[in-house]
Each structure stands twice: as structure tokens, then as C-alpha cells.
């Protein structure tokens, strides 16, 4: 993509330029839209699908474990391959990898829409997760290459983040509308024309970007962490059917422990570890990464079981459930914009602690709604969870980036995103299993577990992240 000369470059001191001014060339605009639209589908699909879980269960008459695998199979692949896909993009070209990822995601969306059963849907979702893992690091790499000027790059990334937030926020409502009027398969059908259009736009308007110093890929460590996540997730999900002491469940947990030891040993002697040890020497980095995992553990787990609860227990339609969940997805963006003036490094510790405390109140409020026939406590709880996310997510990301060296920022952000995906996978797996074993009591235990995890991380924030 050709460099773009803008008024912003001619007058560096000027601020507040519109996107139309900053990305004045048609090639730049369409290239930016192509990069954003592809990943918009990923976030939209993630939150929209949760609203459709009830309809999928009704059509296929599947068990809870099948529904958990529909969500978790995608997250496992996404989480375990995210870092490696970034390194592959540096080696073979970000545009090429982005096109491959988008093609996989779009093609698997078509197969998901045509799924004859839960097993087929799970398999297609796994390949969708691979496509998403390829697209995320490639999209940010393409943005950095396409907009070399610092002001351009900052606004391009802001625009990308806004589109991603829109996908997350619009997912429940759009998923509810599509499921209610056109069936759950329409959530996947809608990805196909948009994905094809984005593929054409990327090929037409985005230039290739290949890293000058491509990173070495530690395939042994990558395989071990993939197997580790699979066996751990398998044990957590299938325990709902087989019981926690069933031989195959004990074998799954035993293999996950053994693979953890193997992974640690591989990382210790690897010249290019999947998780660079030097990053974890800073307590701010370590705490923020753990917060990322715990946050998604609670949020995605609650979103999964609450969607099922609203449709199967409260007997709401998919549309009504999607609209009720809107505060959870809309308020993070609004909260982040309202407190943007407190986004500096000096406020990271306070924002994390406050956000985690608010999130714990939200999870507690939703738990109390189990004894109420109204929807006030549910709306309050989902709203507080959304506000908590709006406080936590920008501060958590800033903490990771400011506590790592500039040349390691890509790896650091990749580790954070991987931790978040792993946390979300574990949340869906464990909370879904608790609900399957005992519906009301399982939901109560799930909300209580989320409250405890949020409070523990608030304490860790105050204990290990320095005031200055």
C-alpha cells in the first residue's frame, strides 16, 4: 500500500482529524475496511452464537456437553495457535496469511450453516478457530505496515478496535434477531457474502507485508500446549456426563498435568519459547495476563450459561434473550470512552481493582436473580459486568504493553489474547459442566466461583502492581 500524505502529516500538531481526512485515499480506506470487516465477523460470530445455543440444542436434541464443545472447540484452537500464527505471518507474509485465515473462516461458516449434526458443527467450528487465530495477528501487522505514520497508525488501530467492539456489542441483538426470524443457521450464512467481499477487497487494496526478521517457531512447544488444552477441556466438559471420578476423566486430567510438565521443560530449554520467560519477570505483566484469563473465564462462562438459562428456564425467545444481554456487550465500550482520560499508566492499578470489584458485584447480582421472577437483578448484574469489563480491558492491555519491551509488544499482546481465550474456554467448560450436573445449584456455584475469582484478582492487583 502506498504511503499516504495527509494534512495530519503536514501539520503534526493538529489533532481531532476525521477518519476521512486521515485515510483520504480510496485505496487506504478500502484496505482498512477489508482488514476490519474480516475480524468483525469473528467477534460478531462469537457473541451471536451464544444466543443461538438454545435453538441448536432444540434442533439437534443435544446434551450440554455437545453445546460446550460447539463453543470450546473454536476457542481451544484459537487460543493455542494464536502466537504461532503470528510468527508464521512474519515468515510467509501477513496478507497471504490473512487471506488464508479469512477464507477458512468464511468456508467453515458455510459448512456450519449446512451442518447435519452437532459433531459436524464442532469440526467446522475448530477450523473456524484456526482461521480466527491466523487473522488476528495478521490484521494488526497489516495495519502497522499500511499506515507507517504514527498518527495514521494510532487512528487506524482505534478504528479497528471500534469495529471489533461493535461486533462484540451487536452480536447478542443481531444473533437474537437472526435466530428468532431465520433460524440459528443464518448466523453463519451472513458470514459468507461479507467474507467473500472482504477477501476481494484485501486482494485488491492491501499490499503484502513480510517480516524482515521472522521469528523461529517452536513446533514442539506448540504441539504440547495444544494437547494440554484439549485434554484439560475434555476432562472439564465430559465430567458432566461421566462424573468427576470416571476413569477417562481421570486419565484426561492426568495427561493434562503430565503435558504441563512437558511444556515447562520444553520452554525452559527452547531458544525461541512460545512464552518468553523474560516477560513474566515483571509482576505487572504476569498479573495482567492472569487477569485476562480470569476475566474471560468469568465473562464467557456466565454469558454461556445465562443464555441457556434465559431460554430454557425463563422460556424467553432468542430475540428477547439477546436484547436482555445487550448491557453486557454495549456498556464496556461506553465505559471505556467515558473514562478514557484515566487511561494512563498511573491509573492502571486503580482501574483494574475497581473493575474487578464491580464485576464481582455483577456476578453476585445475577446469582441473586435465581430467586427472583423479575429481570431487574439480571439487567443490573449484566450491566455491572459490562462496566467492569470497560474498566478492566483497556487497563489490562496497557499494563501488558507498558511492562514489556517495545520489541516484544507483539508477543506480549499475543500472550494476553491467548490467555483470554484459554480462560474463556475453561469458563464455558467448567460452568457448563456444573450446570449440567445440577441446574440451579450448578448456576449458583458458577456465579459464586466467578465472584471469588474476581475478588482474588482484585487483591492480587493491589498486592503486586505498584502504585507508580
CATH superfamily of the largest domain: MFS general substrate transporter like domains
Tally of individual domains: 3
Q: What is the CATH-assigned architecture of the largest domain?
A: Up-down Bundle
Helix content: over 70%
- What's the CATH first level of the largest domain? Mainly Alpha
From the helix content, strand content and strand pairing, which structural class follows? mainly alpha
End-to-end separation in angstroms reads 41 Å
Strand content: under 5%
Could you spell the SSE succession in H and E letters? HHHHHHHHHHHHHHHHH
Please give a handful of descriptors for the protein shown:
mainly alpha; Growth Hormone, Chain: A; about 475 residues; globular
Could you explain how this protein is built, in words?
- The protein has 468 residues and is mainly alpha-helical.
- The chain has helices at residues 7-10, 19-22, 26-60, 64-92, 94-113, 118-146, 150-182, 186-189, 191-205, 219-242, 247-269, 283-313, 318-338, 348-368, 376-402, 409-437, 439-464.
- The longest helix has 35 residues, at 26-60.
- It is globular.
Amino acid at each position: 500500500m502506498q504511503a499516504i500524505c495527509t494534512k495530519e502529516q503536514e501539520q503534526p500538531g493538529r489533532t481531532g482529524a476525521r477518519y476521512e481526512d486521515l485515510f483520504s485515499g480510496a485505496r487506504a480506506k478500502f484496505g482498512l475496511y477489508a482488514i476490519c470487516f474480516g475480524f468483525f465477523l469473528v467477534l460478531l460470530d462469537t457473541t451471536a452464537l451464544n444466543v443461538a445455543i438454545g435453538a441448536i440444542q432444540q434442533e439437534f436434541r443435544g446434551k450440554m456437553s455437545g453445546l460446550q464443545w460447539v463453543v470450546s472447540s473454536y476457542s481451544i484452537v484459537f487460543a493455542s495457535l494464536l502466537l504461532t500464527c503470528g510468527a508464521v505471518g512474519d515468515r510467509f507474509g501477513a496478507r497471504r496469511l490473512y487471506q488464508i485465515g479469512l477464507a477458512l473462516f468464511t468456508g467453515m461458516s458455510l459448512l456450519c450453516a449446512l451442518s447435519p449434526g452437532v459433531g459436524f458443527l464442532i469440526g467446522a467450528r475448530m477450523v473456524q478457530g484456526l482461521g480466527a487465530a491466523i487473522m488476528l495477528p495478521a490484521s494488526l501487522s497489516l495495519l502497522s505496515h499500511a499506515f507507517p505514520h504514527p498518527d495514521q497508525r494510532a487512528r487506524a488501530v482505534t478504528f479497528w478496535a471500534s469495529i471489533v467492539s461493535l461486533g462484540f456489542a451487536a452480536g447478542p441483538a443481531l444473533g437474537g434477531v437472526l435466530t428468532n426470524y431465520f433460524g440459528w443457521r443464518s448466523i453463519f450464512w451472513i458470514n459468507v457474502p461479507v467474507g467473500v467481499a472482504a477477501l476481494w477487497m484485501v486482494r485488491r487494496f492491501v499490499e503484502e507485508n513480510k517480516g524482515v526478521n521472522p521469528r523461529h517457531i517452536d513446533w514442539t512447544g506448540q504441539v504440547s500446549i495444544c494437547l494440554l488444552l484439549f485434554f484439560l477441556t475434555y476432562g472439564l466438559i465430559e465430567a458432566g456426563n461421566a462424573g468427576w471420578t470416571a476413569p477417562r476423566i481421570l486419565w484426561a486430567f492426568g495427561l493434562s498435568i503430565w503435558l504441563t510438565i512437558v511444556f515447562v521443560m520444553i520452554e525452559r530449554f527452547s531458544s525461541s519459547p512460545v512464552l518468553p520467560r523474560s516477560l513474566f519477570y515483571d509482576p505487572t505483566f504476569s498479573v495482567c495476563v492472569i487477569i485476562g484469563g480470569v476475566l474471560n473465564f468469568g465473562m464467557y462462562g456466565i454469558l454461556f450459561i445465562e443464555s441457556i438459562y434465559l431460554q430454557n428456564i425463563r422460556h424467553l425467545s432468542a430475540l428477547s434473550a439477546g436484547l436482555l444481554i445487550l448491557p453486557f456487550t454495549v456498556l464496556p465500550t461506553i465505559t471505556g470512552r467515558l473514562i478514557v482520560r484515566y487511561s494512563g499508566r498511573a491509573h492502571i492499578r486503580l482501574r483494574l481493582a475497581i473493575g474487578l470489584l464491580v464485576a464481582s458485584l455483577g456476578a453476585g447480582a445475577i446469582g441473586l436473580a435465581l430467586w427472583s421472577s423479575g429481570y431487574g437483578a439480571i439487567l443490573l448484574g449484566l450491566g455491572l459486568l459490562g462496566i467492569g469489563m470497560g474498566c478492566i480491558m483497556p487497563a489490562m492491555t496497557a499494563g501488558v504493553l507498558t511492562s514489556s519491551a517495545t520489541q516484544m509488544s507483539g508477543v506480549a499482546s499475543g500472550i494476553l489474547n491467548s490467555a483470554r481465550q484459554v480462560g474463556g474456554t475453561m469458563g464455558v467448560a467448567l460452568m457448563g459442566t456444573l450446570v449440567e450436573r445440577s441446574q440451579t445449584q450448578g448456576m449458583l456455584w458458577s456465579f459464586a466461583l466467578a465472584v471469588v475469582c474476581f475478588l482474588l484478582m482484585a487483591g492480587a492487583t493491589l498486592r503486586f502492581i505498584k502504585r507508580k
